[in-house]
Amino acid sequence: MSYQIHPWKVVETSLNKEHMRLSESLTSTGNGYMGMRGNFEEDYSGDTHLGTYIGGVWFPDKTRVGWWKNGYPQYFGKAINCVRMNGIHVEINDQPLDLATADVVDFYRELDMQTGVFLRRFTVWTPEGKVTVEAERFVSLAQKELLAISYSVTPENDAKVVLRPYLDANVKNLDSNYDETFWEMLQEEGTEDAVALLTRTKPNPFDAPRFTVAAAMSCWADGLEMLDRKLEEGYVEKTYGGMVPAGEKVTLEKYVLVFTDRDWEDNLIITMALKAASRAREVGYADLRKEHADTWKQRWDSCDVTVKGDDAAQQGIRFNLFQLLSTYSGDDARLNIGPKGFTGEKYGGATYWDTEAYCLSVYMAVAGQDVARQLLMYRYLQLDGAYFNAGQQGLKGALYPMVTFTGIECHNEWEITFEEIHRNGAIAHAIFNYTTYTGDESYIRNEGLDVLCGIARFYTDRAHFSSRKGQYMIHGVTGPNEYENNVNNNWYTNRIAAWSIGYFCDWAEKVDEQRREKLGVTAEEIAHMRDVVARMYYPTDEELGIFVQHDTFLDKELMTVDQLPKDQRPINQKWSWDHILRSCFIKQADVLQGLYFLNHLYSIDEIKRNFDFYEPMTVHESSLSPCVHSILAAQLGYHEKAVEMYQRTARLDLDNINNDTEDGLHITSMAGSWLAMAHGFAGMRTVDGLSLNPFLPDAWQGYGFQFNYRGRVLRLEVSKEEATVELLSGDALEMTLCGETVTLTDKITHRF
Fold it and tell me: Rounded to whole angstroms, how far apart are CA atoms 728 and 742?
């Protein structure tokens, strides 16, 4: 591939038509409110995945299965492609410009992560000579509804140039069934300065919400005249054109403003969009770009991670942070972090357990306590839906969905949707993580206790008592390792269930009687929950000294990944599903997920025995896998393995390691690179106050990052000789550095 290593940029220096979708994924941009893939402005007739998405806008697609089972979700929730905003039809001497067929002399595509600006430059041969185009755009971080584009054309010889910027709501998803569309066209409107269209998602039979979207466009052209305007159903366009002298540059600036009825009354939004588009034109591209870039600078100033001596590692972690910050801002508690963010449609849904398991820790450290609390509030606001999900299975309590937009489950694979119940534990652990990290007990005493109560009641009811064993068990589950389904007593599921129940009981006994009465919790219920915790069954093997992944795991033919022929990898693309289910190979951390979450409860020897047993059987075919292994490897002193796993998580998309980045980026797993750096290399632990125990990878010259902690901003710098922690703002802090308790008032250095 033609991507360059650069500490701040993703750079492509030639047009690779065979990997267009991959390039579009890697140059995606967003601002937490909306975003888009790195599609061309001009028409492209080759293979491409056009994608523009708005946070919280989705459609319920009827669940299609061969055999309907009671309890199935009625629909599969899909992130849907919205109005195409960036399009510009380009004609040079009456010939459409299409890079799929044009004679491209040179090509350059760049995503500048420091400023959040996407840039392309290319030159094409035409019968009348060469023409050079420069296109730049950004989805504004300073004004969330704004997309701004600057598009310039410079002909080598005199040329007739026509540019027709447009908005088009006649779009569909790449995965649409039978080319179905999701939008009704309501209105097209024009003023002296701008044109706009109004669309609404089509009716659905599931009582799921519908969304109305207004998009307006204003333009300014230097060197071209406005010739025409077109308003058709779901489509608006302006035409600019003229004869351009040889060597002169003409520029079109396009401003698109998008408003939805998620935030405003639907009868107001088209007028609001038209006015905002006109205002953007008055402000101008240069000032709007500066405002956007300045906002990115402020964001980077508070969260940048530096790596010295390894530009690939530096690029990887900045790319991941850039995409995470482009996906979620914390401004809206109704939004969350979708697995593809604004970069693709695969998986559907807006929320998985990935948010709590991986992303919360990162946002808490780099964006602050208030943003992290918004992620917790998202689950509280959807608690009614979780109770509904449990009720659909005939169970008490709350079952948070595997995939959702509203709190109602909308994933249609049974073995995932209703067997992968460990996800409840990730939500409970996120409350624990937030509380211990921030020291803020206000959430857990109020909204959080309601969430924990629902989770504890679900797990208590889902467990059954084995009279033969005299212990509680949980049968018929899928653990984090999705290469096994419908197993009994998955160790991690049993462990996180019991821990979640116990954590609720602890806090239920800390609050006053009035609070318990509000929850309807009695002493008898607490006593029963405590009994479930005390007598939960965990499969173990004393001879091996390990926690057994599930009851029959050790009965499989056990072998390590290095015994697999290379032509059999990845197994999810080479083997039948039957073959995978019968094998011992592990998709992602399972037992080790529990030892990461509940790290403070287990000894180094216990972690080591289990890591040494399970990691060699792990194929890491989930993007969520490498970071957990990197963190635990670092804790065990397996530094080479820790770095190997860090590189995999940091550059998963940039290097297309799983060969699926063309579908969109792995947004939630991107948190893993920061976790591997902070929890792994830096040894950060926060259960009992702040502790740092860093090491430096052999190939690096140093690394550093700053983070928020309990109203303070700290920075850690690590070199071959020393580790330094600096208090940038906030009160003095007692912490542990390399095993020594210290009081940080300004700066403390530990020499290795």
Answer: 16
Judged on CB neighbours under 10 Å (0-12, 13-18, 19+), 572 is: middle
- Per DSSP, the three-state class of 366 is helix
Distance of CA 428 to the CA centre of its chain: 20
In angstroms, the CA 108 to CA 12 distance is 6
pTM for the whole structure: 0.96
Closest C-alpha to 588, from 550, 625, 562, 632: 625
Amino acid at 69: K
C-alpha distances in angstroms, 537 versus 138, 488, 489?
Answer: 54, 11, 8
Model pLDDT for residues 466-512, shown as the tens digit of each residue: 999 999 999 999 999 999 999 999 999 999 999 999 999 999 999 99
Residue 62: which pLDDT band, with cuts at 50, 70 and 90?
confident
Q: Give backbone dihedrals phi and psi of 638, rounded to 5 degrees, phi first.
A: -85, 70
pLDDT band at residue 411 under the 50/70/90 scheme: confident
Gap between the Cα atoms of 408 and 411, Å rounded = 9
d(CA 42, CA 91): 9
Instruction: Read off the tokens for 584.
Output: 């011992």
How far is it, in rounded angstroms, from Cα 598 to Cα 429?
A: 9
Residue type, 114: Q
Length of the chain: 752
Contact present, 10 and 99 (Cβ < 8 Å): no
Whether 710 contacts 372, CB under 8 Å: no
Number of H helices, E strands in the chain: 22, 32
205: cis peptide before it, omega within 30°?
no
Which positions ≥6 away from 349 have C-beta within 8 Å? 77, 79, 338, 339, 403, 404, 405, 410, 411
Q: Which of 74, 668, 176, 180 is CA-nearest to residue 411? A: 74
What are the tokens at 234? 């779901």
**C-alpha–C-alpha distance, residues 256 and 89, integer Å:** 16
Q: To 5 degrees, how large is the angle CA 87–CA 91–CA 93?
A: 170
Amino acid at 6: H
In Å, the largest CA–CA distance within the chain is: 90
Candidates 81, 82, 84, 77; CA nearest to 204 is 77
- Beta partners for residue 52, in sequence order: 36
- For the chain, helix, strand, coil in percent to 5 are 35, 25, 40
718: Cα within 13 Å, side-chain hemisphere: 24
Rounded distance between C-alpha atoms, residue 589 and residue 577, angstroms: 19
Residue 195 forms beta bridges with which residues? 190, 217
Q: Quickly list DSSP for 154-181.
A: EESS-EEEEEEEEEE-----TT-GGG--
Pairing of strands 95-96, 733-737: unpaired
Average pLDDT over residues 235-260: 98
Q: Which residues of 603-641 are buried (b: 16+ CB within 10 A; e: fewer)?
A: eeeebbbbbebbbebbbbbbbbbbbbbbbbbbbeebbeb
DSSP 8-state secondary structure symbol assigned to residue 5:
P
- Sorted by sequence, the CB contacts under 8 Å of residue 424 that are 6+ apart come out as 398, 399, 400, 455, 458, 459, 497, 500
Which residues are the active-site residues?
482
Amino acid found at 607? I
Per-residue pLDDT band at 61 (split at 50, 70, 90): confident
3-state secondary structure of 243: strand
Mean pLDDT of 703-730: 97
CA distance 215 to 196: 6
Handedness of CA 264, 359, 140, 729 (dihedral sign): positive
Q: How many CB atoms lie within 10 A of CB 352?
A: 24
Q: Burial, 534: exposed, middle or buried (Cβ in 10 Å; 0-12, 13-18, 19+)?
A: exposed
Nearest CA to 381 among 349, 417, 351, 354? 351
Structure tokens at 536: 């939960």
Q: How far apart (Å, rounded) are the C-alpha atoms in residues 396 and 565?
A: 47
